[in-house]
Model the fold of this input.
Amino acid sequence: MRHRIKNAVRTLVAGLGLMALTAPALRALDTVVKASPAEIAAEKASRAKLEKALATDPKNVTLRKQLSRVLSDLGAFGDEDASNAAVELLKTLHKEQPADEEILAFYGNACTIYAQYSSIFTKLSWVHEGFNYMDAAEKAAPDDIDVRVTRAINSAQVPGFLDRGDLAREDFAWLLKRIQSDPKDFSPDLLRTIYYFNGKFLLEHGEPAAVQLLAQAEAIPPPDTDTLGPKIADLLKTARAKFPSALPLAKAS
Done:
């Protein structure tokens, strides 16, 4: 009964919000992240590996958190079943580990991704529910790197009319400052991810600082299986063409 009431409230709130939006704005919530066949294949391979490990250790929280992120990525790439699986897995994890703010942030991210597959009457409520979870996670654990990265990237990628740009800037600024003060807290792959998404965000907002961030991302040696490298190279080329007088590459952290 409680579940039905929650869904009814979600539908009512979202329906009221729809009245203020145009059809193109709502369609923006359905945008699938462009992914190469190699990216999708890599995520599917990661999913299979994690599910195999969980078959023998089904309660392992770390593995389940990792799987939830892979499922969310696949959902963002257009896999509705994976998106739904991410939401359900994280809902369960949150019930089991209510004090784990990383899980709450991942849950929020998964909800915003799932919005693209929900009905027109519930899209906004899924999005705002996800925002609320991520904001609550950041408020409870403002120094958690994974919480900040999750909210930063999510806020940078959602449509502009949702007004999350300031939060993206806030979180990326915090992350860059943390990189400078505690570089050992960041793996090379995480550094590349942060520099890439921050650079992408700044480029989309017409800011020359994108060049330096993307150049820093490109300068970090890639992992053995690299699906981000081509995106970094393409975006850096675009940024350099747009801002030919931008600052040269600084030493990567």
Remarks:
- DSSP finds twelve helices and no strands in the chain.
- The radius of gyration is 19 Å.
- Residues 2-142 form a domain with the Serine Threonine Protein Phosphatase 5, Tetratricopeptide repeat fold (CATH 1.25.40).
